[in-house]
Specification:
By secondary structure, the chain is mainly beta. It has two domains: 310 residues, monomeric porin ompg (Porin, Beta Barrel); 34 residues, no CATH class. Helix content is 13%, strand content 49%. The protein contains six helices and 18 strands. The chain has a 14-stranded antiparallel barrel. It has a two-stranded antiparallel ribbon with strand order 4-5. Strands 12-13 form a two-stranded antiparallel ribbon. Strand 6 and strand 7 form a beta hairpin. The protein starts with a helix and ends with a strand.
Length: 350
C-alpha cells in the first residue's frame, strides 16, 4: 500500500508547476463537466457515490456502484456558446477495477466574425475544444481508492489546431462509517504535443493540485465539502492597481491608502477555498438541494460599482434507483448565469 502512495505522490510532484487560469491552454477543462459540479461551486471532488460525472474530475471516485451507468450533461452559455460531456462506467469483478470513458466538448460558435487590423469584416470562423478521457480506479479494503484519468485534448481556433496529452491522478479515503471522505487530486498534468502555429511556443496545461473533504452529518440529512485549490501555488491574486492602491483626496492634500498585509493574506487564502453543501430530502433522499460558494470566482468576476451573484451557485437533483436528473446554475456576470442540465442513468439490470 505504501508503494502505491509513494508512486502517486512522486508522479504528482514530478509534473508540479505554478499555473493559474489565463496562462495555460485548454482552459475549457476547468468548466463544470456536470450539473452536480456546477451547482456545488464548480468543484466537487471528495464525495464517493454512484454519480459517474464526479469521476470525470476525480478518477479515484470510480466504484462498483457506477457499473453500466452513463452520464450526460449540457451547459447553456450566452451567445450560443455551450459545453457538453458524456461518460460511461464499467466495473470488473475479476480485475477488481472500475473503468470509465467519455468526452468533454466545448463549442464557441461557427459564425464568429473575422476582421483584419483595420476592423474590416473578412468572413467568419469557428472555434471548439474537446477532450477524450479514459479512467480506471482500484479500491483497497473499501476505504482507500486510487485512480487515474488519461486525456487526449484537441483545440481548433480559426483554422489553428493544437493537441495535448494530460492525466489526472487521485487518491480517496473514506472512514468505516462512510460519513467522512478526503481526497487528494492532481488535475491536468501533461503537456502540449502540437502547437497552434510554429511562431508560438508550447503552452502548459491548466495543472492544479487540490485537496478536499466531504462530511455527512450523522443526525441530519446534510453533507458539506471544503475544497482547497492550488496546493502548488500560494499567490493567486491578480495584481490590479485599482484595487490594491486607492487615493482619497482630502481638503489638506492627498492621502494614499493601501490594503493591509492581513487583508491581502486573508483574501488570497479565501480564493483557494470552495465551499458547498447538499440537503437530502425524502425517505430515500430522492430530492437533493445544493448550494456552493467559490470566493476566487467571485473576486475575479465582481464589479466595483455593482453587486452581482458571481461565485454563488445552486442546483438540485431528483434521484431514483434507475436514473437521476440534475440542474445547476453558475453566475458569472450581471447579464445572467449559466444553466446546466444533467442526466445520469443505469443501463444494466437494477
Amino acid at each position: 500500500m505504501k508503494n502505491y502512495l509513494f508512486l502517486l505522490i512522486f508522479a504528482c510532484s514530478s509534473v508540479l508547476s505554478a499555473q493559474v487560469g489565463g496562462i495555460s491552454a485548454y482552459e475549457f477543462l476547468n468548466l463544470p463537466n456536470s450539473a452536480t459540479v456546477a451547482g456545488m461551486g464548480g468543484h466537487h471532488i471528495a464525495l464517493m457515490d454512484d454519480d459517474l460525472s464526479l469521476a470525470t474530475r476525480n478518477p479515484s471516485l470510480l466504484n462498483p456502484l457506477m457499473h453500466q451507468r452513463a452520464a450526460i450533461s449540457h451547459a447553456f452559455h450566452p451567445a450560443g456558446i455551450s459545453n457538453s460531456s458524456l461518460a460511461y462506467g464499467h466495473h470488473s469483478d475479476k480485475l477488481k477495477l472500475t473503468f470509465q470513458g467519455g468526452l468533454q466538448y466545448a463549442s464557441y460558435g461557427g459564425d464568429l466574425v473575422r476582421r483584419d487590423n483595420t476592423g474590416r469584416d473578412i468572413g467568419t470562423f469557428s472555434a471548439s475544444d474537446f477532450a477524450l478521457h479514459a479512467g480506471v480506479a482500484r479500491s483497497f479494503d473499501n476505504r482507500l481508492s486510487i485512480g487515474a484519468n488519461l486525456k487526449v485534448v484537441s483545440s481548433q481556433l480559426a483554422g489553428y489546431n493544437s493537441i495535448g496529452l494530460g492525466m489526472d491522478l487521485a487518491v480517496h479515503y473514506k472512514d468505516t462509517s462512510g460519513l467522512f471522505g478526503i481526497t487528494f487530486l492532481a488535475r491536468n498534468a501533461g503537456r502540449q504535443i502540437s502547437k497552434y502555429d510554429d511562431a508560438s511556443g508550447f503552452e502548459p496545461l491548466p495543472f492544479e493540485l487540490q485537496i478536499g473533504i466531504n462530511k455527512q452529518l450523522r443526525y441530519l440529512p446534510f453533507r458539506f465539502s471544503v475544497i482547497y485549490r492550488y496546493l502548488d501555488r500560494w499567490n493567486v491574486l491578480f495584481d490590479d492597481p485599482d484595487t490594491e492602491n486607492e487615493s482619497i483626496f482630502l481638503a489638506f492634500g492627498e492621502e494614499e491608502t493601501q490594503r493591509g498585509p492581513g487583508a491581502v493574506l486573508v483574501d488570497n487564502l479565501a480564493r483557494h477555498i470552495v465551499l458547498n453543501g447538499e440537503l437530502m430530502i425524502g425517505k430515500n433522499r430522492n430530492l437533493r438541494l445544493r448550494v456552493g460558494y467559490n470566493h476566487g470566482l467571485r473576486r475575479e468576476l465582481s464589479l466595483t460599482d455593482f453587486r452581482s451573484g458571481a461565485g454563488y451557485t445552486f442546483g438540485f437533483a431528483f434521484r431514483t434507483k434507475r436514473f437521476s436528473v440534475a440542474y445547476g446554475r453558475t453566475t458569472y456576470h450581471l447579464g445572467g448565469g449559466v444553466n446546466q442540465l444533467g442526466l445520469d442513468f443505469g443501463l444494466g439490470k437494477r
